[in-house]
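Standup notes, protein team

Yesterday: finished cleaning the Devosia marina set.
Today: Mth938-like domain-containing protein structure.
Blockers: none.

Input for Mth938-like domain-containing protein:
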Amino acid sequence: MSALEKGRFPRQVGIDAYGNGGFRFAEMSHKGSLLCLPEGMQSWGVTSADALTLESLSPVLAQASKLDVLLIGLGTDIVAIDPAIRQALRDHRIIIEATQTGGAVRTYNVLLAEERAVGAALIAVEKAR
């Protein structure tokens, strides 16, 4: 059963595990990609790095005033982020760090535990590394 009834979990929490096409958090599981934002966790339709667009990141921009850092988990590969995306986030004073999903999950958990204003856009992967 997905933790995201109606596509949303009402608060931001740490991620316990990732892989098998999804994530585990708050003693529940979610199949698919995930946005972790100050106002909660929500399902995210992005399945590959080439589908990352300003439109797909619109929920991030809507909460920009509550974020300092956005971690982008690009799946199993690291690719360049579109300069327009980087500029839009920079215009909102959001620092972005793009890496493989596993690294993004680990860094997100650390920054969240430090009570930093962090968000994550995480593309689901099949195998955890």
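Follow-up from PR in the comments: Residues 90 and 96 are 8 Å apart (CA to CA).
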